[in-house]
Amino acid sequence: MSIEDYFATGPAREQPIFEAVMEHFATVGPVHVEPVSVGIFLKRSRSFAQLRPMTRWVALSFSLPRTVSHRLMSRRPIPHAGRYHHVVNLAGPEDVDDDIRTWLTEAYLDTPAGECRTRRPARLGSMTRLDAARVGAWRDMQSVTAALERAIDAELRAEWDLSLGWFDVLAALQRSGGAARPSELADQLRLVRSSLSRRLDRLEEDGWVVRRGGTGVDHRSVVVELTRRGRALWREMNVTYRRAVQRHFASWLDDAEIVALRVITAQVAPEL
Q1: How far apart are CA 205 and CA 78, in angstroms?
Q2: Are 24 and 101 in contact (CB under 8 A)?
């Protein structure tokens, strides 16, 4: 996909923000631009920043060896492998201020120069042999995750006669401010598009969400919104959900174990 093809179907605010970022890098050094369906990767030898269109802004993400703060950051930086992943929500090119330009320069210079390669596991060259312990760890994670989801799903069904999968979509929309593109929801939930589409069909049929916009093949302009009934349902189901997560998961782990678990999951699948 060329950058022209990418901007041809996106919201109008994306390109001015991209141009403001690239105007800064013109004074820093060469950048490889890789547009994909969900956003734009900025690379040297590997990706050092990303621009992803959201419903009301463009999310600019980058990693630094330290934490920084900004009025446009809606969540705390996420630690991973000695670095911190930051996300800044840009509503327009004027939001690319001196602080953001400084951090982008730092992220750029902290990434080695060289030929861009297809992303692969960082430790591929020194990977330990796949032994019985590692296979067992994978099977444990797989089975425990499935068991936890079944337990939480059972409590939601018992009280609301609605599945965890349905609640997850409502919760993702709520986290996005009540509206999001299907591609954004699929990324948040790590679902294939067809699976998400089926869930949206059922939720829309029951009046919990509504899809707006979109004509012909321009699916990027479709936005899924929570209805008033959907917001009320999420609030009420969230009480049950939080109680179930606390009972079956959170109560068994202390703060240090939660941090360790988040680091492990980020390290195993940072790009999934």
Answers
A1: 37
A2: yes
